[in-house]
Structures are given as C-alpha cells and as structure tokens.
C-alpha cells in the first residue's frame, strides 16, 4: 500500500526529538545550531574549517579530534566541524548490521551517539549512510537528539543500495521521514546535507545539468518538504576554475541565500605516496575555495584533505598538519589580489544557473507528462531515482549553451580518457560473456568497462551495486559467463573474496573471477591493510589496473574452452 507523501512527511515531523543537545562546540560559540554559527560567520566574513575523520572505531576517532583541537589551540585557531566517515553498516538498523561486510569507518553503538559532540569542541556532521538509507529516519532522530544539526546525505539516496538489495519505496519513505524531522527543526537551524559528488550529479555531461540536479534537490527538500538544504561539492571537482563557477552557480540557484555544509577537498587529484604533489593540489584548490568564501560567503567550511588520504585513513596528526596549512593560506589569500577573473566567473555562473533552472523546470514538466504526482515528495524522489541524471539528459534533449557545455565534470572526462587510454590495448573478446559488478558508488571503472568491453566484442551483464558476492556468482552461472569482474573499494576486499570463494565452491563455477578496486581489508587496526596476496591464495585473480583486467579477459577468451556443466 502506498502512503501519501504528505502523510510520510507528517510522520517524520511528529517523530522528531523533543529537544536537541547543545554540543561542546555550540556552547563555546553560544549558538543553538551550526547554521547559526554559519550565518554569523557569513556576516562577519569569517572562514570556517572542516576535517573529515573516520578511524575504525569511535574511541580512536575521538582521540584524533582532541589532537586536532589541541594543536590548533596552540596556534590560536579552531577547526569548526568534522565529518564522521561512517561504515556502510550504518545504512541498516543495528540489529541487522552483522549481515554486512566490516568496512572502513565506525558504526556507532547506542552509547556513542550521546558523546558525538563532546569529544572536542568541534561540531559533528553526519553525511555517510544516514539520510537516503533504510535506517535513515532512525539515525536522523538519534543524530538530532545528540546535537548534530547538519545531517545527510541526500546524494547517497540516488546512488546507494544496501548489499543484497532494498525496497526502494521503503527507503524513499524513510528518507522523507528523516527530512521531515529536520523540517520540524528548521527554525532551530537544522540542515539537510547533500553531497552532489556522491550522487547522480556526477553522471552529468556538463556542470549545467550538475547544478540542475542541485536545483531539483532544492525543490524537493525545501518546496515540497519544508526543510532547508545545504549543498556540498568538491571531492570530484578537480579544476580550480570549475570550483569557482560551481560555487557561484549553486548559490545562484539558492537565490544567493545558500547556507552550505562544506566544500569538500579535491581528492581525485591526489596520488598515493606522492606527498609533494598532494601538497601542491592542496594549496591549489584551497586558494580558490578560500577566495570563494571571501568573494561570496555561503557558510561552507573549507576542507583541507590530508596528504595521505589516497593511501589510508589519515591520522589526527595528519589532519592537524593540513589544517595548519589552510589557516596560514587564508592569511595569504586575504592579502593577495584576485585569484580568478571574478567578473568572468560571475557571468559564466549566471549562465550555468539559468540553464540549471530550465533543466529543473523541464524535468518537472516531464514528470507531469509521465503521470507522476509532482506535489508528493515520495513519488518525485522515486521517479527521479528511476530516471537518473543520465536518463534525464537523454530524454530532455536540452542542450546547454556552448560555454556551459564546455564545463565538463571530472567523471565524464575521466571515463572518456580511460576509454581512450585503453583503445588499441584491449584484446579481441568476441564470444566472451562477462558479469560486471562494482559493489559501491565508485562507478568510473564500471562505466569505462561498459564502453570498452562491448567494443572489443564482449557481451557484458551489469549487476547493481547492491549485488552480493554470492549473487554475482549465481548470475555468472545463469548467464553462462566466461568471467566475473568485481570491484570493491570500502575496506572489505578479503570478506568479499571469501564469500566469492565460498560461492564458487558451492556452485562449481569454473570461470575466471577478477577482483579490482581498492583491495584492502579492515582488520581492526588504525587503517585497512592490503590483501592482494590473500585473495590470490583463495584462487581469485586480483587486477591492479584496467589494462591488466582486460588482458586477463583476453587470455581467458583465447585459452582452452570451458567444459560444459552437466
């Protein structure tokens, strides 16, 4: 039975906690919410700072926060907020967490919610596996009660699925209930956070539809649900010019009243074990992000990414190091001349925002034509999730102006470059059938293989990110696949590998099983450890690169034929 969205929203409002804890940070700032601090900082021209922390357990994470706070206090500086990198197990209720793989990041226990805002005078932000998941409403209530007033991540609603599958309507209703809780506390400063780079916005062919998706999210959260939306971006926005234009354009579609959560640091440009390069990346993007906050303040906290981010979970000391770099750089930026051509940036951002609003309006008209109840937030969310941004671009056929079309996001450029780099190196795969699954939202590799393998003659069967290792093997048997290519990135590679091995043994599947991605495992230490050798010992085939995966598929295609199952 379908529950009307208005009823779901009302249920969420009614379920909101009766009070919100005043965290150590809010007590120090004499504020009732983080939004109040952001508004004050915006008026005063003060830049705020964000750190992303997420060790394998809460106690280690809390110690890192205290180290950051104490170190900055010696300099007379502060870190305003921290994002807690939670485990994917947080997407489900505590009773069923054991069914999911142990991955990077803590999964909060009941007693830990109350101390989130007390480990240090740094305001907690929860934006991983909260809103947009089956347990989103339950956890939004706990977070609000604990004094967390910026909660997300709506971006993950579009792109995330619980391993093993989920009921999309149930998840959507849980999402609207959670948004309803934050709507109930809007006057107190509660913000719904959405990280655009985590969601389908990164399917965009240009930043015009990327910002158009932001406008759609604002319509749902603010116009249909009555909450306030805080957009975030940045992890996958590598071009400093793009960062400036996106900052201005997103603010424009918020009627220049945007109160953002944080602008995430450029992580895609960072390299493992190349700290000199990473330091250059850090200074490059921070210079623009700081300048944006001084030019048009939106309350976004700036985020200095630790130089070790591409290798492992950074320590408190490594976070402190880059926080100090950022504070020192702010002083330089304040004294320097313009770091970008602001007049040109403002004009281009205006074009992007104008196209984005046309994109939003055309999408809503399309939903009406499709028979969607566009006043119902549940139905609108479900329809948009089913379409996706790539599907919308295809159906709308709404070409952006040339200047906007030339603003191509990192992911689209990366997929094109990856496919081009593989050209001429992929063997003949005619007659080869491949089951492809990437078990999280890291879909650049997936999209590159979806373009490359068919061009080489392979037939590709794509499984959703909710696939389990066992379901991947069963699909390979059902499809009579010659090979499986499976990607995993979240610190659970060995668990995934063991489940794959068990499924192979149980079914007698004799095809090639290739594993790629970030092949490490959270074994309870400070950081996940490399498990490539362990996977090889299980009889699986790790591939460090796409070229290697394609070569392995070619060897399989031209090697001895598999015997038929009997």
Provide an overview of this structure:
The protein is α/β, with parallel strands linked by helices and 566 residues long. The chain has 2 domains: 9-344, Methylmalonyl-CoA mutase (TIM Barrel, Alpha-Beta Barrel), CATH 3.20.20.240; 413-558, Rossmann fold, CATH 3.40.50. It has 21 helices and 15 strands. The protein has helices at residues 5-15, 24-29, 34-44, 58-74, 110-113, 136-145, 154-159, 168-184, 207-224, 240-253, 275-295, 316-335, 342-369, 377-396, 402-405, 410-422, 444-455, 469-478, 493-507, 532-537, 546-558; strands at residues 50-53, 81-84, 123-125, 150-152, 191-195, 229-232, 262-263, 301-302, 433-438, 459-462, 483-488, 512-517, 520-521, 529-530, 541-542. The strands form 5 sheets. It has a 5-stranded parallel β-sheet with strand order 10-9-11-12-15, sandwiched between helices. Strands 1-2-3 form a 3-stranded parallel β-sheet. Strand 11, helix 19 (493-507) and strand 12 (512-517) form a beta-alpha-beta unit. Helix 9 (207-224) runs antiparallel to helix 14 and helix 16 (410-422) packs parallel to helix 17 (444-455). It is globular, with a radius of gyration of 23 Å. 55% of the residues are buried.
């Amino acid at each position: 039975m379908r529950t009307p969205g208005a009823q779901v929203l009302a249920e969420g409002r009614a379920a909101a906690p009766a009070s919100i804890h005043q965290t150590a940070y809010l007590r120090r700032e004499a504020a009732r919410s983080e939004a109040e601090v952001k508004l004050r900082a915006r008026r005063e021209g003060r830049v705020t700072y964000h750190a992303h922390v997420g060790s394998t357990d809460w106690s280690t994470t809390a110690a890192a926060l205290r180290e950051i706070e104490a170190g900055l206090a010696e300099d007379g500086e502060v870190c305003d907020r921290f994002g807690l990198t939670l485990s994917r197990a947080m997407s489900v209720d505590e009773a069923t967490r054991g069914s999911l793989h142990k991955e990077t990041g803590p999964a909060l226990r009941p007693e830990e919610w109350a101390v989130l805002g007390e480990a240090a005078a740094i305001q907690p932000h929860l934006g991983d596996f909260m809103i947009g998941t089956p347990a989103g409403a339950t956890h939004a209530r706990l977070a609000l009660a604990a004094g967390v007033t910026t909660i997300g991540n709506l971006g993950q609603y579009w792109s995330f699925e619980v391993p093993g599958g989920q009921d999309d309507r149930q998840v959507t209703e849980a999402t609207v209930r959670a948004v309803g809780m934050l709507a109930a506390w809007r006057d107190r400063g509660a913000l719904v956070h959405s990280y655009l780079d985590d969601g389908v916005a990164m399917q965009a062919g240009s930043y015009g539809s990327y910002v158009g998706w932001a406008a759609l999210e604002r319509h749902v959260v603010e116009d249909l649900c009555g909450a306030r939306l805080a957009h975030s971006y940045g992890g996958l926005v590598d071009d400093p010019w793009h960062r400036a234009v996106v900052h201005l354009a997103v603010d424009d579609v918020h009627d220049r009243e945007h109160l953002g959560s944080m602008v995430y640091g450029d992580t895609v440009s960072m390299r493992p074990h190349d700290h000199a390069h990473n330091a250059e990346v850090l200074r490059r993007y921070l210079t623009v992000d700081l300048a944006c906050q001084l030019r048009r303040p939106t309350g976004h906290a700036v985020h200095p990414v630790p130089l070790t981010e591409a290798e492992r979970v950074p320590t408190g000391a490594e976070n402190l190091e880059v926080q100090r770099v950022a504070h020192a750089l702010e002083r330089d930026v304040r004294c320097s001349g313009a770091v970008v051509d602001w007049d040109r940036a403002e004009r281009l951002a205006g074009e992007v925002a104008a196209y984005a609003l046309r994109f939003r309006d055309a999408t809503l008209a399309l939903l009406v034509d499709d028979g969607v109840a566009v006043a119902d937030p549940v139905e609108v969310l479900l329809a948009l999730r089913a379409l996706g941004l790539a599907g919308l671009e295809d159906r709308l056929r709404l070409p952006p102006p040339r200047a906007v079309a030339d603003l191509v996001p990192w992911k689209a450029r990366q997929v094109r470059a990856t496919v081009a780099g593989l050209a001429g190196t992929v063997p003949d795969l005619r007659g080869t059938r491949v089951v492809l699954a990437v078990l999280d939202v890291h879909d650049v590799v997936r999209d590159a293989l979806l373009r490359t393998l068919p061009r080489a003659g392979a037939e590709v069967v794509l499984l959703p990110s909710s696939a389990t290792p066992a379901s991947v093997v069963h699909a390979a048997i059902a499809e009579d696949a010659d090979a499986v290519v499976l990607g995993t990135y979240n610190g659970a590679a060995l668990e995934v590998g063991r489940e794959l091995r068990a499924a192979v043994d149980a079914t007698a599947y004799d095809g090639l099983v290739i594993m790629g991605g970030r092949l490490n495992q959270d074994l309870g230490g400070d950081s996940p450890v490399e498990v490539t050798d362990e996977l090889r010992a299980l009889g699986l085939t790790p591939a460090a690169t796409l070229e290697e995966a394609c070569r392995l598929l070619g060897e399989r295609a031209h090697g001895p034929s598999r015997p038929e199952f009997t």
